[in-house]
Design a protein that fits this description.
By secondary structure, this protein is an alpha+beta fold. The chain has one domain. 47% of the residues lie in helices and 17% in strands. The chain is built from six helices and three strands; from the N terminus they run E-E-H-H-H-H-E-H-H. The chain has helices spanning 38-52, 61-64, 68-73, 78-86, 98-107, 109-125; strands at 12-20, 26-34, 87-90. Strands 1-2-3 form a three-stranded antiparallel beta sheet. A hairpin with a 5-residue loop joins strand 1 (12-20) and strand 2 (26-34). Helix 4 (78-86) crosses helix 5 (98-107), helix 4 packs across helix 6 (109-125) and helix 5 crosses helix 6 (109-125). It is globular, with a radius of gyration of 16 Å.
């Protein structure tokens, strides 16, 4: 078991992300995520929402609990932009780049959402996998 040392946070962490393929079956990709603390992740999501022009209609619980998916639907190419900000590498044959991420999002739509959700769960809840 690894000993944790407060104040010595990782720069990144790896996860294998699984997702449904359009033709059926499962695909997977190992990604290296950029590490953020929970507070940093909250600030990051606030920035994403602000850039997407997403804000709650009121302070009622239902309005405040809008989802990241709704924010991502608001802007063009947001999935690729978001992934570029949370991932710093992968194990695909294609070199990791904005164009390659955009192509993955286009060809394998389930992959983008799985990567985004896997990151959210890892940062906010410390969960392994999907």
């Amino acid at each position: 078991m690894a000993k944790i040392i407060l104040g010595k946070r990782p720069r990144n962490f790896k996860r294998v992300v699984s997702f449904d393929l359009p033709e059926g079956g499962k695909g997977s990709i190992e990604v290296s995520f950029v590490y953020r603390t929970r507070k940093e992740f909250g600030q990051f999501v606030d920035e994403v929402f602000s850039a997407a022009g997403v804000a709650p209609a009121s302070q009622a619980d239902d309005d405040v609990k809008f989802s990241l998916a709704k924010a991502l639907e608001k802007t063009v190419d947001t999935n690729a932009d978001y992934i570029i900000k949370i991932v710093d590498g992968w194990n695909l044959d294609a070199e990791y780049s904005r164009d390659a991420v955009q192509q993955m999002c286009d060809e394998y739509p389930g992959a983008a959402q799985a990567v985004i959700e896997s990151y959210r769960l890892a940062i906010t809840e410390g969960r392994l996998g999907n």
